[in-house]
Amino acid sequence: MIVITKNDKKDKKDRLGIGMDPTSQSFVINAATGITKPFRVGSEESTMMFIKSICFIPTKEMKRYFYDSPQQFMDFTGIKLDQNVINDWTNSRINLKPKIWKKK
Fold first, then answer.
1. DSSP 3-state of 52
2. Which residue has better confidence, 99 or 63?
3. In whole angstroms, what is the distance from residue 99 CA to residue 4 CA?
4. Which residues are CB-contacts of 102 (< 8 A; sequence separation ≥ 6)?
5. Where are the alpha helices (DSSP H) in the chain?
6. Nearest CA to 51 among 77, 69, 39, 25?
7. CB 17 within 8 Å of CB 31
8. What phi and psi values does residue 80 have, to the nearest 5 degrees?
């Protein structure tokens, strides 16, 4: 999770793209592209996305940002991720994908 303080809220919020309420049942919107996905926040399909949860201090506002991949997140935000984070996300998607698509 990324924590954003009052001083850097505007700059980082703009750089992260479109954020969504984590309790929302609306369709997922890619934070970088603005493209609406055909599945809802909190659905199993949404877990295929690279998700960053952001807490804005002092309001304690929580937003969830959905990206197609860690690479898209890094390219869009300019924030470098540790290679272990990228590897963990990639490996978990390999295991998750068959479970989701078999249900359809």
1. strand
2. 63
3. 35
4. none
5. 9-16, 70-77, 83-102
6. 69
7. yes
8. -85, 130
